Amino acid sequence: MSGALFPRDRAVVAPGAVHVPGWLPVERQRELVDACRDWARGPVPIRHTVLPGGGVMSVQTVCVGWHWQPYGYSRTADDVNGAPVAEFPQWLAELGREALIEAYGEHQGYSPDTALINFYDGTARMGMHQDKEERSAAPVVSLSIGDSCVFRFGNTETRGRPYTDVELASGDLFVFGGASRFAYHGVPKVLPGTADPATGMRAGRLNITLRETGLAG
Fold first, then answer.
1. How confident is the model over 121-172, as pLDDT tens digits?
2. Which of 35, 122, 145, 204 has the most CB atoms around its CB within 10 Å?
3. pTM score, whole prediction
4. CA-atom Rg of the chain in angstroms
5. Where is the Fe2OG dioxygenase domain (predicted)?
6. Where do the domains of the chain lie?
7. Are 11 and 147 in contact (CB under 8 A)?
């Protein structure tokens, strides 16, 4: 139902879109937080992305494997400091395959080669958008750590309705592929004060999305 908020149970939100609450244990979340802090220090530091029209995204972003900027990928962060992006580790690819097995029952040969890591403070938002810079149509794996948020998952045709609002909490897994791979999605609201300090996040939300770029080199 459009605009409905799903309960905290495993759910197929749309064909190919699966929400698994509490998938990551606290210890694994903390390991990811530590890794993300290392990546945020460089070689390409975390930053607010400047959009082509001059607007500035409210989330802060750092990339691993490939550097994303609107609207494409490169090996060097030419919009930041020109440095090569941090290498994508094999253990993160393995985590992505584990996520697909959890969501779909098989990993489908999933081989992610980039991670976009977004940090949301209490006021940050993400407008409705499609992830379509990749040449591969392999699923996107999304991991949430820290504060909960309202995640709006829509349709493939328009930024508007129909959409479903899902509460993503720390440790949640959300995978979207197949018929939902190019669905519009966004984050209209972060819920401050909901983070568990045991994860290493006292405030704010960390979102890690794994993708296959389909690019060579």
1. 999 999 999 999 999 999 999 999 999 999 999 999 999 999 999 999 999 9
2. 145
3. 0.94
4. 16
5. 111-214
6. 11-211
7. no
